[in-house]
Every structure is written in C-alpha cells, then in structure tokens.
Fold each of these.
Amino acid sequence: MLKLPSHIAVLTSGGDAPGMNAAIRAVVRSAVYYGKKVSGVYNGYEGLIDGTFEELDSRSVKYILNHGGTFLKSARSQRFRTPEGRKQAHENLVKAGIDALIVIGGDGSFTGAKIFSEEFDFQVIGVPGTIDNDLYGTDFTIGFDTATNTAIECIDKIRDTASSHDRLFLVEVMGRDSGFIALRSAIAAGALEVIMPENSITYDQLYQAIERAGQNKKFSNIIVVAEGNKLGNIFEIADHLKAKFPHLDIKVTILGHLQRGGSPTVFDRVLASKLGVAAVEGLLIGRNKVMAGVMHNQVIYTPFEEAITRRAYINPELIRINKILTI
Ligand SMILES: Nc1ncnc2c1ncn2[C@@H]1O[C@H](COP(=O)(O)OP(=O)(O)O)[C@@H](O)[C@H]1O
Ligand SMILES: O=P(O)(O)OC[C@H]1O[C@](O)(COP(=O)(O)O)[C@@H](O)[C@@H]1O
Ligand SMILES: [Mg+2]
C-alpha cells in the first residue's frame, strides 16, 4: 500500500539559478494547497546534515517570485557524498517528521538524491534548476533563459565597442560541461563562431572563419567561448589568434558569475511555477526518484538515472542555422 507524504521538505543545491525562488514558492504554495506540511532546508544538503529546517507557510514565500538566487541558499556538500553524512541527514528528516523531499538543482544534486533515496527508501523528486540546461528529460532547465538573456545583454554592449574599434572579442560564457548557453547566445548575438564542448572546432576552422569575415568586410567580430570547451583556455585561444593575425585587435571578456544573477525572465518564472507544482503533485501520486521536466510543453517525470546519465543534446539545427547566418 502506497504511503503518501504528509510533510514535504524542499532544498536548493549546486549552482544557484534565477528562478529557484519561484520554484520554492510553487512547491510551498502547492503543498499548502493540498493540505500538506512543508519545510524549507537551508544550505542544500549541508542543511539536511545540520538539521537547519524551517516550517514554511504560503506567506513565507511572498515577494520572492521575482528575485534571483535562492532564499534557502545553496551549497556544494562534501559531507553528503559520504554514507555518514547521508545517515545524519536521514535521521534529521525522520526526527522532524518529514517523509518526502524535493531537490531543486542539477545533475550532481540528483545523483546525490538518487543515492539517498535508495539507501533509506525515502521519497524524492527533483526539479531541474541550473543555468547550464544540461539535463536530459526537460527541454529547458530553470535559470537557462535568464542566464542567456543576461549574456546577450552583455554581448550586445561588447558589440558596440567592438564595432567602434573594429575589434575581435572572445567572450567566455558559463557551461562547465555543455555549450547550451554558448550556442544560444551566439545565435542571438550574431557571433562569428562558437567554441563549445559539443563541437570539435579546430584552429584551422577558426582561422578560416576569421579570414572569411575579413574578405566579407566584417570588421567587428564576436566569438563565443563556452567555459568547458575542448580547444583550451580562452586566453590560450586568444594568444593563438593573435599570433596568426597580428594586425587584429583581439580582446577577451569573461562574463562569469553575473550570468547566474538577476531577476528571472517570464519564461523562467512560468517554468519554475509549473515544475514546482508538478513536483508536489508527483509526490502525491507516489512518484519517486524522478525529475519533473517539461518536454514539448508537457510535464513529464524522468527517472533520476536517465536524467543524470543520458546526455541532453544540443539541437544540431541551431548549429546549422548559426553557420548560415554568420556568412
Ligand atoms: N555522487 C554523489 N553522491 C552524493 N552526493 C552527491 C554526488 N554528486 C553530487 N552530490 C551532491 O550534490 C551537490 C551538488 O552537485 P553539483 O554537481 O555541485 O551541482 P549541480 O546539482 O548543480 O550539478 C554536491 O555538492 C554534493 O553534495
Ligand atoms: O559557482 P561556482 O561554484 O564557481 O560554479 C561554477 C559552475 O556553476 C555553473 O554555473 C552551473 O553548474 P551546476 O548547475 O552544475 O552547478 C557552471 O556553468 C559553472 O561552471
Ligand atoms: Mg551540474
């Protein structure tokens, strides 16, 4: 006989992402709507181990929908990687009368959630919150749209100075293992090239692109570089290009953590609202060890195992479009 939860805990884990607050709000409000108790856990898995829980009601989450970051704070927890840390976390949850957990985070957080759920037969559902968009089982992760909009705002500004001085800018965007932010930003900013983990672009190809731009009288150029690309560090790439094209004025800008901040876009607020409700409703129909996601505008639940191990593929159509438009 399926035992449904009566007291749900929610936490945010891994890199923060704009829209996480909107997701927490949706979890809290829908739990209250369905007559369940709900607690917030501070500092991700660290807070599970330290027992920093606080019972929340629908008013506890007022005025947070439009704020970036996460009011529950986030952490990367080494202790949760150990059996002792997870045992302590489980004891604290049981002591507080909590019988289900919603984890808002990325692939690492869901790996931890899966292990924990299996070890203690504890009901857990995940909500994809990461700017990287690198999870299988959802077309978009919470925070990705805001991060790419922020990146674009910055690249547009860089374009102004690039065009005033006929410069070539290399702009590094986030994405430790994936190029979703890079490719989308490149298309939206009209970048000459994109260097990301998913394309094995060579220096020869880069040289050709720059030479072609010169022949086509394109004097200001942007190359978007994903942090986790395979060609190398952005400064090394710049050095190669400077050696090959000594007459070009080449500059480097690293956008960094500003991509993780700011008020979430409408898209992220709506996505977070949908997925927060879907996570609670999933728990109430007995779903476990799954991530709530949206594919083709439909809410779906994907086993953690698949969400973590299957790769979220970059749409090759976007790569093709970018090639055509940078002529
Ligand atoms: N193999 C694992 N076992 C237990 N916990 C893990 C494991 N992998 C990740 N975690 C937990 O999830 C946290 C967040 O993972 P991380 O990869 O940093 O971020 P994200 O969830 O955004 O991908 C880690 O700090 C750790 O506490
Ligand atoms: O904030 P930190 O710890 O420097 O982490 C930076 C990393 O976090 C991210 O922004 C998001 O990664 P996760 O969602 O996996 O945490 C990566 O793109 C970036 O490499
Ligand atoms: Mg991750």
Amino acid sequence: MIAHKCPHIQVTIVDMNQERIDAWNSETLPIYEPGLEEVVKACRGKNLFFSTDIDKAIVEADLIFVSVNTPTKKSGVGAGYAADLFYVESCTRRIASVATSSKIVVEKSTVPCRTAQSMRTILEANSRPGLRFDILSNPEFLAEGTAMSDLDKPDRVLIGSLSTPEGRAAQQSLIEVYSNWVPKEKVIGTGLWSSELTKLAANAILAQRISSINALSAICEVTGADVDEVAYACGLDSRIGPKFLKSSVGFGGSCFQKDILNLVYLSESLHLPEVADYWRQVITMNEYQKRRFAQTVVSSMFNTITNKKLAVLGFAFKKDTGDTRETPSATVCRFFRQENAKVSIYDPKVPEKQIFLDLTEPGVQDDSAVVKKQVTVCKSAMEACTGAEGICILTEWDEFKQLDWPAIYESMAKPAMVFDGRGILEADKLREIGFKVFSIGKGVNL
Ligand SMILES: NC(=O)C1=CN([C@@H]2O[C@H](COP(=O)(O)OP(=O)(O)OC[C@H]3O[C@@H](n4cnc5c(N)ncnc54)[C@H](O)[C@@H]3O)[C@@H](O)[C@H]2O)C=CC1
Ligand SMILES: O=C(O)[C@H]1O[C@H](OP(=O)(O)OP(=O)(O)OC[C@H]2O[C@@H](n3ccc(=O)[nH]c3=O)[C@H](O)[C@@H]2O)[C@H](O)[C@@H](O)[C@@H]1O
C-alpha cells in the first residue's frame, strides 16, 4: 500500500524464504487477498521490489519495518502462551550488525508490551559507534480478506514513540509516510508501551465479542431464541454497535488466539492471575463452541458418524482468504476423523496439499496415509455433497449461498442434513426442499 500510494518512496520487501520471494516475483502470488494482485503488478519493478538480499536492503533503507512472525512459543518458559520473539530478535541483531547509517526501526509485528525496549538495547549494544536507532511501534490492524481496503482506509494508524525530541522526530517521519493517503486525524501518536498494548487489547476485545455472542448462541439453542435477532437488537445500541457480533462455529486466524494467549502470559508475568483468567476465558469459550458444533453433528446423526459421508464446505478461517491458520474447520474435521467419518472437503481457495497438512496429526505414525483414506478434497461443492448424509458449512464463502440446493438434496443420502456453522443459509427454504437444518444459535430442532 505504501508503494501504491507513494510513488516517490522505494519499498523493498525482504524475506529469508526464497520460495516466498520467488512467488512474490512471479505471476502467482503466495497469498490470496482481494485487490492485492492488481497493486503488486502495478508497482513491482517500479518502486516495489521483492528480494532475499536482506543485508543490502538494510544498508539502503532509512526506515525499516520489522514484520516477521511472532508465533506462540512451543517449548521452554511460557510455552503455549508467550510470543516467540526469536524472529524479531534475529532481525534486530541483523540490523545492528549490518547497518552503516542511522535508521528508524518500526515494530510492525505484534509483540508483547515493552519489546521495543529490548530492541533498543540490542541495537545500541551491537551496532557501529555513532549510529542512532529510533524505535517506533506501529501495530497493524488489517484483517485478512479485507486487507487492501483496511490499509487504504484504516480506522486509525497508531504510532508509538518515546516522548524524547528524537522519538517525536522519528514519529513525524512515519506520520509523513501515512499522510500520503490517510487523513491526519486518523493518525494517532501515543507512547511506545500504550501502542504495543493497544494491539493486544484490540484483538482481545474483538475476540471477546465473538466469544460473547457464541456463549449466547448456546443459550439460544436451548431456549428457542434466535442469535441473529439477539445480535441485531443488541447491536442497535450505539454503545454496542453491530460489528463482530456474528455467531459462528468459532473464531480462527493466526492472531486472535496467539495474541490473547500473549496477553494472558503478560498478565501472569505481572502477577495479575485474575486478569489472566479473565482473558483466558475468551479462548476457552471458543474451544467449547467448536466442540459443541461437532457434537451437535454427531448427536443429530443418531449418535454415530462412523463410516458416514460428511461434506465440509469451507476450510479457510474466514471467507476471501486461503489462510487456514487456526481455522475452526480443521478442529471440526479432526473431531470427525476421530469419530471415523468419511469427510469430503471443498474450499474455493485452499490448496489440497494444505488441507492434508492441516489434518495430519504431527508425530502419529503413518497418519498422512490414514488421513488420505478418511478425507477427500473435492473440486466443487456439488462433488463434496454428492452421496453425503450431512453437510457442514464451516466458512462463510458467498458461493455457498448460491448453490443449487435442490440438486444437492437429490444427490444426497436421506435424511439429508445441513449444519450451518456460519449462519449464512436460509434454513426455511432448505427445509422446504426437504433438508433437516441446524443453524448455530437457532435451536436444535432439525
Ligand atoms: N496476518 C495478519 O493478518 C496480521 C499479522 N500481524 C502480525 O504481523 C506479524 C507477521 O504476520 P504474518 O505476515 O501473518 O506472518 P508470516 O509467518 O506469514 O510471515 C512472516 C515472514 O517473516 C519471515 N522471516 C522470519 N524471520 C525473518 C528474518 N530474520 N529475516 C527475514 N525474514 C524473516 C518469514 O520467512 C515469513 O515469510 C505477526 O507478528 C502478526 O501477529 C498483524 C496484523 C495482521
Ligand atoms: O492481528 C491480526 O492479525 C488481525 O486479527 C483480526 O483479523 P483476522 O484474524 O484477519 O480476521 P477477522 O475478520 O478478525 O476474523 C477472525 C475470525 O473471527 C471470525 N468472526 C469474525 C467476526 C464475527 O462477527 N464472527 C466471527 O466468528 C471469523 O470468521 C474468523 O474466523 C483483526 O480483525 C484485525 O484487526 C487484526 O489486525
């Protein structure tokens, strides 16, 4: 977006992953994101470059965005909760050892509060004498699937800095970049620690809304209330607002879970166990929602899905992306595998290879062969549904609303059941065709 909006600025994207950089330089970009290809193709080779020559890019840059992955730690202190800062630290060390001039280093990755302080210490201890490094925190708020429009018209851009004259000057340099397309009043300056914490807080609050409405969906299913009506009526209160109140099979994506776990770890490290428990509950509710959905499928299908064909429509964690990180669809499919169902999956953007990778249990001998016996990846929704006894909608792709449902009904074993984990189908119309329908948060009477 910077390259697109600022023709006078040269943007070089460097990554140590050669395959990814090759893909960025090819006709087939490594990720699917509406509107991205057009921008890349318009700017590439003009003021936008992709390279693995990290050192050259560091030497040439005035401003460096550190945007590497910060996954949840898998082992050691804080395993399962804390963010793994290995990649952020190795980038920082590389900048320190390679830079021959002063730089502004922008923390773009999502990191725990006070990471900027560690970056500064590493840079100051390891760089050539006489160089200055100003650290800014500029967290990213885009959502996948709408990344280009979110970047084009952000609700806000947050730039945290030290309140020293040098910190303020660095902040001003980054404000100038954004002011090429973002209105001034939307660019907010704060302290470094507030900026870092805001990113974790914003994701935690967004995820909390989803867990809140999903908790209510369970009550709706027992009482006969309709979760969409409840969400709509609550959202009309201007203090609540309508967004992020769509009940679902659970939230996924690479960040909500990791960032909340990170916040939980931060709270525990600060000796605030009640605060940690409070945020942990957002995740607990999400796990419950995924499990609850899968259990509803089994109980509705006469308490067994062994050898039954189930069609799964949607594998990405949300529509308009091919990303499957933490996708609820994988959790539900793994549950179906344990119950020995035959699962046929269709997703318009997720490659077959990725689906098998996500469903293979690491460390289980021969599981990749077993998974291929239990799971089939299909080229169309119709193919996945033919002969199935149940259909699960696990991603809200628009095309699932337009399917030829009467033809699907004809092709299925009876009773034909639909389990709408995203609340996107018109249940009454499907019932008229003959389907038995379960929709999340709308009662369990199929
Ligand atoms: N994916 C998203 O929508 C958003 C992500 N974020 C944050 O942005 C950060 C990055 O996220 P993603 O792009 O999704 O992760 P990713 O895992 O897709 O990409 C990270 C890239 O960094 C590269 N890398 C790692 N260490 C490196 C090093 N030392 N030198 C050069 N390249 C290196 C990796 O090869 C990889 O290609 C995370 O902190 C995430 O929380 C924030 C907002 C939105
Ligand atoms: O830090 C990040 O990575 C990003 O995380 C989220 O973005 P993202 O995970 O890409 O996508 P969301 O639109 O937030 O959806 C996350 C999950 O919640 C689910 N969801 C979303 C909204 C809703 O009402 N109900 C619901 O179940 C989605 O289906 C999806 O599985 C935030 O929305 C971004 O602001 C943030 O920058």
